[in-house]
Amino acid sequence: MFWGLRSMMQTDTFFDLFLTELKELPELYHYYKFHDDPGKLEFRKSYFIQRLNYIEHQVRQQIAAGIKHPKIWDCGCGYGTTCLFLAMNGIASYGTTLEFYWPFIEQRKKYWSAYGNSELFQAGYENVMDQSPEKNSIDIIILQDTLHHLEPIDQALNTFRQVLGHHGILIGVEENGSNIVQNLKLYKQRGNRRIITFWDETLQKEITMGNENIRSIDKWTELLLRHQLKIIPESTEFIRIFPPALYKERNAAQMARRESQIQFTFLKKYFFFGINFIARKMDM
Predict the structure, then answer these.
(1) CATH: 3.30.365.10, 3.40.50.150, 3.40.50.11540, 3.50.50.60. Which one for 31-281?
(2) How far out from the chain centre does Cα 216 lie?
(3) What does DSSP assign to residue 27?
(4) For the chain, which residues score pLDDT lower than 70?
(5) What pLDDT score does 190 carry?
(6) Are strands 93-97 and 72-75 parallel, antiparallel or unpaired?
């Protein structure tokens, strides 16, 4: 079924089609682990959909506010999943990605062309630090699992500040850098080596990147303010605290509601896994 430009493809429908796609494209297995352990499928699906719902909601809020055809830059779009979801809903976007993901973009667009206009998603093989888009030209910047990879972070945030339009938003979807369990896991994995470099064969240059350099919402607030970008407090969400065993088929919405009812700051700060937020430019 081709959904067309005016119809909405719900996140659940998109996810089901995505699971089918993964069976046809096993190269993506290492990143999307939905077929690895059936016992964790609902747990992983819930997190995936919560984040996608958050991004879609913020995009539609911008459209409702009068930006009918927002110019969207998905910085660090990876395999392009979020951009493809937006395309299935008639929303155009441009994604920036690097070599590990690049070979699969066109193959994925071909698959999704059966369900919507996948050409609404365009991508470029680019290093963010090399970009200099026109000032005030972007309505929405999506940074999903990307901020913690950008180094030097001040250079990246300065770029975002310059290109973001006066009424634009920056959408941050990140791991919670205060999460105790995740911090222990990452320390075991990479120690204190939070910044690394690698050689990009296509660009023929060395690239600096954050090595899972996750930060807390307080730290992101501080860093963004340094570049005249202000996180909107009421936009902030903390997600995923319950273990996989509590997730059953069709109870994801119930679990999300239970999460949202938790008011203890200590739990949010140190035990929730993910954080979502939007930021806007401050008046100079």
Answers:
(1) 3.40.50.150
(2) 16
(3) G
(4) 1-7, 284
(5) 92
(6) parallel
CB 133 within 8 A of CB 240: no
- The confidence score (pLDDT) of residue 29 equals 79
Query: Between β-strands 164-175 and 138-144, what pairing exists: parallel, antiparallel or unpaired?
Result: parallel
CA distance 21 to 251: 24
Count other Cβ atoms within 10 Å, centred on residue 19: 14
- Separation in Å, CA 120 to CA 54, 94, 112: 20, 8, 11
Cα 7 off chain centre by: 23
State the amino acid at position 18 in one-letter form.
F
Distance CA(133)–CA(155), nearest Å, equals: 14
**What b/e string do you get for 44-59 counting C-beta neighbours within 10 Å, with b at 16 or more?**
bbbbbbbbbebbbebb
pLDDT at 273: 97
Q: Given CA atoms 219, 224, 226, 228 in this order, what sign does their dihedral have?
A: negative
Q: What is the pLDDT of residue 36?
A: 86
Residue 33 has a pLDDT of 87
Cβ count near 151 (within 10 Å): 19
- Residues 58 and 75: beta-carbon distance below 8 Å: no
CA 149 – CA 239 distance, rounded (Å) = 20
Question: How would you class 273 by CB atoms within 10 Å of its CB: exposed for 0-12, middle for 13-18, buried for 19 or more?
Answer: middle
Q: In the numeric block, which tokens belong to residue 199?
A: 């050689």
CB contact at 8 A, 77 and 51: no
Cβ–Cβ under 8 Å, residues 153 and 128:
no
Distance (Å, rounded) from C-alpha 148 to C-alpha 186?
13
CB-count exposure of residue 88 (10 Å: 0-12, 13-18, 19+): buried
* Residues in the chain, total: 284
